[in-house]
Design goal:
This protein is an alpha/beta fold and 392 residues long. The protein has helices at residues 3-19, 22-28, 38-44, 60-65, 79-82, 86-101, 103-106, 117-125, 146-153, 185-197, 208-217, 241-249, 260-263, 267-277, 279-288, 293-311, 317-331, 359-367, 372-391, and strands at residues 32-36, 70-76, 111-113, 129-136, 156-160, 200-201, 223-227, 253-256, 336-338. The structure holds zinc ion (ZN). Zinc ion is lined by residues 136, 205, 226, 341, 344.
Length: 392
């Protein structure tokens, strides 16, 4: 080897040592989180997210530090509190949409509204955060097809037909009726309407029958915005291998959530035991809170968070990447993404506890041999491709 070549090699190594820095790789990627419930905090607690908050999982400062580029805010209508359908559910959805749509006015230096993949690329290039919306559970369409377009016009770009309580037209993975309920004719017309408008169909939370009815109805690729793999954590809320194959076959994306209950084997059962043990404690906190029902829920969740931290095993980002690995080995790196469920869960991963820790996901992916191109796909590239396809 000539001296000149050696010099060149050394220079190249220096160059690659800089560009291979995990944090730089992370920052170069467009990072899109498909699901966070910060919306309800913004509305119910009237949070100012311009400063670093002492609690919760998300604010502008931590989102910036975590290298996030786009956030899908969940428009979540809790069925028991706000009615599974009807005027109450629509009002609750509209209020949350107004809060998200108001972000650019409140924080013009940080947020811009986005509805397309081009919007996300443009906003990220300008160094801002893109705010998008997804409707979690179809309660707010109130069993009327025209409401799908109403929410689309308001900026909503995905919808899951049901959350933990089945709708009349779609089964949930979480209740008894969902064990046998799929999509009825109206449900199928909702999926076709979403296809027509260019709204992504989200299969997170739906029953197995609903999942397969969606696969057989949707003419466009679909998404799971925040789910894990049953092959690792066998809970109804997760996807089995056949489902993951079906999503990939249609060109869709499975976004893995960051919640230990659906990542760590056995965690969800342990949590159920703890839930039974702390039921009276949770009830007491709810009764002692005299403000609105929203604050009562916050009080209950606070007790759960504290008790889970004390009583349940910790899980790390490594377990999350086990799920990503599983999907990649099954169908390839083109069909996986992320959806944190931040501010919607009462326990997070030790080293991915808030949005600020997002670079730890990239570090773990690189440690396992994923390339920068793979990381870009997983963090947001695959979702951008899907959005463009569904927009057509
Ligand atoms: Zn959810």
């Amino acid at each position: 080897m000539t001296k000149k070549t050696e010099t060149t090699v050394v220079a190249d190594q220096n160059y690659s040592a800089q560009t291979d820095d995990p944090l730089l790789i992370h920052r170069r990627a467009i990072a899109i989180d498909m699901h966070a419930d910060t919306t309800q905090r913004l509305l119910d607690e009237q949070l100012d997210i311009s400063r670093r908050l002492p609690d919760g999982h998300f604010d502008n400062v931590r989102a910036r530090d975590g290298g996030l580029d786009a956030q899908f805010f969940s428009i979540w209508v809790e069925p028991e509190l706000f009615g599974a359908g009807g005027a109450g559910a629509m009002k609750r959805a509209d209020e949350q949409i107004a809060v998200v749509r108001g972000l650019p006015d409140r924080y013009p230096e940080t947020w811009e509204l986005a509805t397309t993949s081009e919007d996300i690329r443009r906003i990220a290039a300008a160094g801002k955060l893109a705010a998008l919306m997804g409707l979690e559970g179809g309660y707010a369409i109130d069993e009327r097809l025209e409401n799908v377009e109403r929410y689309y016009q308001m900026g909503v770009r995905y919808m899951s037909p049901a959350w933990s309580v089945s709708t009349s037209w779609a089964g949930s993975s979480n209740d008894k009726v969902g064990q046998t309920r799929g999509l009825n004719d109206f449900g199928k017309s909702v999926i076709r309407e979403m296809n027509r408008l260019g709204m992504m169909v989200d299969v997170s939370h739906v029953s197995d029958q609903t999942f397969w009815d969606i696969i057989n109805t949707s003419a466009k690729p679909i998404i799971a915005t925040h789910s894990g793999c049953r092959a690792i954590a066998d809970v109804p809320r997760n996807l089995d291998d056949e489902m993951i194959r079906a999503i990939a076959k249609g060109g869709g994306v499975v976004c893995v959530l960051f919640y230990p209950a659906f990542l760590e084997p056995g965690w969800d059962n342990k949590k159920k035991k703890v839930d039974a043990e702390i039921a009276s404690l949770v009830q007491k906190a709810s009764e002692e809170e005299l403000r609105s029902i929203a604050y009562k829920k916050i009080a209950r969740d606070r007790v759960r968070r504290e008790q889970y931290a004390d009583r349940l095993p910790r899980a790390s980002v490594s377990r999350l990447v086990d799920h990503i690995d599983h999907i990649v080995k099954l169908v390839g790196v083109e069909y996986v993404g992320v959806g944190s469920d931040f501010d919607g869960v009462q326990s997070t991963l030790t080293d991915l506890a808030t949005v600020e820790d997002l670079p730890n996901l990239t570090r773990e992916l690189l440690r396992r041999g994923y390339t920068e191109s793979d990381v870009q796909k997983i963090l947001g590239g695959n979702v951008l491709r899907l959005m463009k396809e569904v927009q057509k």
